[in-house]
Amino acid sequence: MATGRTHRPATRSRGIPEATVARLPLYLRALTALSERSVPTVSSEELAAAAGVNSAKLRKDFSYLGSYGTRGVGYDVEYLVYQISRELGLTQDWPVVIVGIGNLGAALANYGGFASRGFRVAALIDADPAMTGKPVAGIAVQHTDELEQIIADNGVSIGVIATPAGAAQQVCDRLVAAGVTSILNFAPTVLSVPDGVDVRKVDLSIELQILAFHEQRKAGEETGTPDEAASAQSAAPADAITPGAAAAAPAPLAPHRAAPGAGTDNGRQGPDGDVPAVMPA
Amino acid sequence: MATGRTHRPATRSRGIPEATVARLPLYLRALTALSERSVPTVSSEELAAAAGVNSAKLRKDFSYLGSYGTRGVGYDVEYLVYQISRELGLTQDWPVVIVGIGNLGAALANYGGFASRGFRVAALIDADPAMTGKPVAGIAVQHTDELEQIIADNGVSIGVIATPAGAAQQVCDRLVAAGVTSILNFAPTVLSVPDGVDVRKVDLSIELQILAFHEQRKAGEETGTPDEAASAQSAAPADAITPGAAAAAPAPLAPHRAAPGAGTDNGRQGPDGDVPAVMPA
DNA sequence: CCATCTTTGTGCACGCGTTCACAAAGACAT
DNA sequence: ATGTCTTTGTGAACGCGTGCACAAAGATGG
Fold this sequence. Notes:
Two copies of one chain form a homodimer.
Chain A: H1 18-36, E1 41-42, H2 44-51, H3 55-65, E2 69-70, E3 74-76, H4 77-88, E4 94-99, H5 103-110, H6 112-115, E5 119-126, E6 135-136, E7 139-143, H7 147-154, E8 158-161, H8 165-178, E9 182-185, E10 198-201, H9 204-222, H10 229-232, H11 237-241
Parallel strand pairs in A: 4-5, 4-8, 5-7, 8-9, 9-10
Antiparallel strand pairs in A: 1-3, 2-3, 6-7
Chain A binds a DNA duplex through residues 1, 4, 17-20, 43-45, 54, 56-57, 59-60, 62-63, 67, 69-75, 243.
């Protein structure tokens, strides 16, 4: 109010909280849907419901962008779509390269969501010579050797890594060296990049494990006791540690309850620590 | 109702912070790698580096699980692998169904990370009759009609949705009705589920948009704050939509911005609000 | 058995994000 | 105009997560 939004109260450019940025795409999607139905305006309440968030949170989020609503009425859909798009930088064209054209890479290449929001697949790159030239999603796959050239020619600043874990860091380094400053990583590895480069990761395995955790917790609650406490700490890590000896089998200590599946496959090995996010191509 | 379910009241005595749970899989991966190299023990500092987190944070995270370390030495790798696996519920078998066998669904089915951590693909389901019986990743695709039966027969409690956005909610409802209580959603839609059901979403488009935002900001800083204050406020929402403004602001930044001269592009269409996460099968 | 050195476990403070609750702003009817 | 009603925008409180800094625990060496 006082400041209203006169001279971008500093809350502006640098201000938008990360959490808010992460939700803008969500609002944008909901708004786009409304726009297609020719809905002229929406209240924070309605839009919040559509986006699956709290209305107060939504209003606060929008407040970081400026005062784009009208009290007593709501927000103008079209206008808001434009404002958010602009804020997210979707009004410009973002050429993207996808490295690693395995199952996942191909799926990404075909993903319609790319093109629909200002993202353009500038090239598909794979290390397998057999893939070179092969068309995927209408685009001919190019060999890794061309990577630097492709990045430069197309002014690519966003790269998507869908290679096996083992190749991810190397690919990442090359992308960064070539000028890419934002990376979306699908490989199950922690990438190290220099300052100034953003990395976001999407990890299937992790998501499933988190679900498993909650699932287990739910199951435990239902049936009387999670027991946890029992084996919790008492399991005397003291003797189990034996550094030099490195007790070969850690399993024996906590008998724990018999798992439903009983499949104590625990000892899986996976040749490379963690399986690639996608087939090696 | 609402998008329901997110965090519980937190009254949980055995309450491991959500943020910690989300990192456990990360630690587990790093530990598994060490285990394969037969490294007996590791310090919080080393492990933290491998997992890409702060060592203090790692120690605090582990403290929620109990005191599994030895001062002056570090943590016993094997023992910790076991403890975390147990905590995450990975010592048991989790049958999973994947619904929507398009490009993405197929990629997921082939994803090695599934089997390697106690997750077992119990079935692949698709609505397209043409897909039925077709083997994907060594498993015959089954028709949606069988969904309920499959869930029941296999005791599935985790479902993965990789269908187009339009079918997601319906599939979700059926999964939940059939007994699934955890869902990993790849479709670009907000799913509403009853309380007690957990939903985690993986949204490609959103990740890219977030990257674009930062990318834009970075570009803007380089050249000297573009600052879109231009079309800032009141400008009658109605006509303001005409993105003539676009030209004014972010022009000089993007290295490429091959955007069509006619900034009017803004209205990129995207017929269905948001394209499916994967090709329709 | 004692001294020293290493590394964990955690108390504490800080900052971000969420939520509540309400005054102000505007639409709309009279 | 004026009053009523709706909905925004935001101040303030609260809670979670993060990171610092350090005491305690235990290993190691003499």
